[in-house]
Amino acid sequence: MRKFFGYILSPFVAIAFFLTLLIFQPIQWVCYRVFGYKAHKWSVDLLNLFLLRTVYLGGNRVIFINKQNLPIGRPIIFLSNHQSMFDIPPMIYYLRKYHAKFISKIELTKGIPSISFNLKYGGGANIDRKDSRQSIAEIIKLATRMKENKWSAAIFPEGTRSKDGQVKTFQVGGIATILKKCPEALIVPVAIDGTWKITRWGYYPLDTFERLTWTVLKPIEPNGRPMEDLVKEAEDRIKKALGQKE
Are 162 and 195 a contacting pair, CB within 8 Å? Predict the structure, then answer.
């Protein structure tokens, strides 16, 4: 039945999603070119509010749970499992006061309205996976901006999306690079559940009437601990929150 409704509702989701991207492209340009970072960030936050609302057109619900008393003015590394492109808008919007910047593939900086512009000028790291030197340099630049501006980073340490919701092994590399340059950063796991179902049949039809949740988990203080231990603890907390075997 959900698939049946997916055939009917998916076009409305897709049209709303891409219209939002088109509308916010010039808005972002004006905000960034004329008014600077604060205005641009405001436009990006608003863009992602509209993007996350588009899934409502498929009867889905977005639930973001953050009961943690996270510090303002301290860099944070948000570590999350990755299930779908729909993971990102709620994280940008609901974590907006922490100025969370993403590590993205450099290919995404071209050809996508609104998204490519934000990746170029929003302060994140755009990495070439075929060029390790470039990738490390970009992540170091991000860590420097985090340290100087008290920004945060949002990282998907699995390296790729999980097509069935099962959490894959977290990679240490990018996180270690950030912490080396910005050792005062706090590590905060985020468990994402349900977004993989949206595209279980591909992008047409999209799944419908799903409950999509983002849960911010208890922070982890690095305190000089081995990087592998820190990342494994974050991975295990996310698995536990999702009811998966640690």
Answer: no
d(CA 61, CA 69): 24
Structure-token match 């604060």, residue found = 38
The 10s digit of each residue's pLDDT in 24-74 is 999 999 999 999 999 999 999 999 999 999 999 999 999 999 999 999 999
- CATH architecture type of domain 2-241: 3-Layer(aba) Sandwich (3.40)
Sheet with 76-80, strands from edge to edge, namely: 61-66, 211-216, 186-193, 76-80, 152-155, 100-105, 125-127
Q: How many CB atoms lie within 10 A of CB 183?
A: 13
Helix (H, G, I), strand (E, B) or coil at 43: helix
Locate the domains of the chain by residue range. Answer: 2-241
How far, in Å, CA of 210 to CA of 194, rounded? 7
